[in-house]
Amino acid sequence: MSKPILISGIQSSGKLHIGNYISALKNFVYLQNSGRYQCYFFIADLHSLTSDFSPSEKYKQIMDIALSFLAAGIDPKKSTIFIQSQIPEHSELTWILNTIAPFGELKRMVQFKDKASRQDDVNVGLFDYPVLQAADILLYDAEIVPVGEDQVQHLELTRTLARKFNSKFKKIFIEPKELLTETPKIMSLSDPSKKMSKSVPETCVFLDDSPEAIREKIKRATTDSGREVTYHPETKPGIANLIRIYQGFSDLTAKEIEHKFSGVNYGQFKKEVAELIIESLRPFRAKKKLLSRKIGSVEKIMDQGRKKASAKASQKMKQVKKVLGLSKK
Ligand code: TRP
Q1: What is the DSSP letter of 171?
Q2: Is residue 183 left, alpha or beta, with left meaning phi > 0 and alpha meaning psi from -120 to 50?
Q3: Ligand 1 neighbourhood includes 133 CB (under 6 angstroms)
Q4: Atom of ligand 1 nearest to the CA of 7
Q5: Across the strands, what pairs with 40?
Q6: pLDDT one-digit tens code per residue, 36-85
Q7: 129/248 same-domain check
Q8: 0.90 exceeded by pTM
Q9: Within a domain: 161
Q10: What is the residue with the minimal CA distance to atom 13 of ligand 1?
Q11: Is residue 180 part of a domain?
Q12: In a domain, 249, yes or no
C-alpha cells in the first residue's frame, strides 16, 4: 500500500519568525524524514493576497519562503514543494467548492471574524480563504494536514465540503484529518499573552535576525517577579515563554530545563536562550545565504515541484469536471 499523502502550506506574507520555525518548518522536516508520508509543502501566495501587500515585495517574499523551506531541510527529493499560484487548479477547484460551501458556516469562521474586525475594507477573498484552503487539500487526496490549533476549524470545513461533494455527486474526495503536533507555542517577547507576531518586530525573533539582534531582543524580553527559572505559565508567563523557546530549540522538556537552570538568574538564563537560538539557526542561516546566491537554481527546484504537483492536481480536476458533467464522460 502506498503511504498516506500529507500536505501543508505557509502563507508568503512576510518574514518568518522562530514561532513559525518551531511549529511549521522544523516540524515539516521531521514529518518528511519520518518516511511515513508522501509529503507536499507549498507556499500559499494566493492566500497572502487577502491581506494588504506590496506587489514589488511579493515575489521576494515567495522566494524567501522557498529558501527557508530548503534551508530548513525540506528536501525536494523526498517532498514535493511548490508555489500555489503556479497551479491554476487551486483557483479552479475553489470556485467549484464555492458552489457547495455553506454561507452560514463560513460566516462563523473565527479567523475570518478576527481578521475582518481588524480590516476596514473586508474583501471577499478573506471570506473565501477557508474554501481555497480546502481546495489546496482536496486536490491532492491528502489524508493528513499538519497545522496549528487555529486551523482546526478550516479542516472541519474541508471535511464538510468533501462529504457534501461526495454525497451530492460522487465519492471522489478524501476527508482529511489535522495533525496537531505538540510543539511549544511561542508568544510575544513583550506581551506573553499574545502570539509572537511579525507586526511588532521588536518583540519577535526573525529567522534572519543577526546574532546581535537576537541577543538584544531576548535581553529585553519581559520577565516576571521572582528569581527562579521555573515553568509556571499562569503566574510567570514571560519566563514560561522563554522556557518554551528553549524547548523548541533543544527538545528538552520544561522540567529538564528547570533542572538545568536551577539557581541560575534570569539574566544568565536569557543569555543562554539567545545563544541556543543563534547556534541552532546557524546551519539554517548559512544554507539560506548560500541558496540566496543561487536563486536561479532554487527557481528550477520550484519548477520541478510545480510539475509534480501539477500532474496530481490536473488529474483530480479532470475527475471533478467529469463528475459534475462539465466534460464528456
Ligand atoms: N491557513 C494556513 C495558515 O495560516 C496556511 C494554509 C493555506 C494551509 N492552505 C493550507 C495549511 C492547506 C495547510 C493546508 O497556517
Answers
A1: S
A2: beta
A3: yes
A4: 14
A5: 7, 80
A6: 999 999 999 999 999 999 999 999 999 999 999 999 999 999 999 999 99
A7: no
A8: yes
A9: yes
A10: 8
A11: yes
A12: yes
